[in-house]
Design a protein that fits this description.
Helix content: over 70%
Radius of gyration: 14 Å
Largest sheet: none
Number of strands: 0
Order of helices and strands: HHH
C-alpha cells in the first residue's frame, strides 16, 4: 500500500500557514516586539513591510509561495 500526498491540499495548508505567520509577524512588527525576526522577513520578502498594506501584500506573497512549495513537495514526493 502506497501513500500519496494530495498536492492541492498540501499547497493550501502551507499557504494558510504561511499567510498566518506573515500576519503574526506583521502584527508583532506593529507592536514593536520580535524586531529581529520582523526585519529578516522584510529583508527576505519583496512585498512585506510593517504597515497595513505591507502586511496584506506580505500575507498574499507568503500564501503564494506556501502553496507553490507545498504543491511541489507533494508532486516530488509522489
Amino acid at each position: 500500500m502506497t501513500t500519496r500526498l494530495n498536492s492541492n491540499a498540501l499547497g493550501l495548508s502551507l499557504a494558510l500557514l504561511s499567510g498566518l505567520c506573515m500576519l503574526v509577524l506583521g502584527l508583532f512588527g506593529l507592536v514593536g516586539i520580535y524586531e529581529g525576526a520582523v526585519q529578516m522577513m522584510v529583508d527576505a520578502h519583496l512585498f512585506f513591510s510593517v504597515d497595513a498594506v505591507g502586511i496584506l501584500t506580505g500575507i498574499l506573497e507568503g500564501a503564494f509561495w506556501g502553496y507553490v512549495m507545498g504543491a511541489l513537495t507533494a508532486v516530488f514526493y509522489n
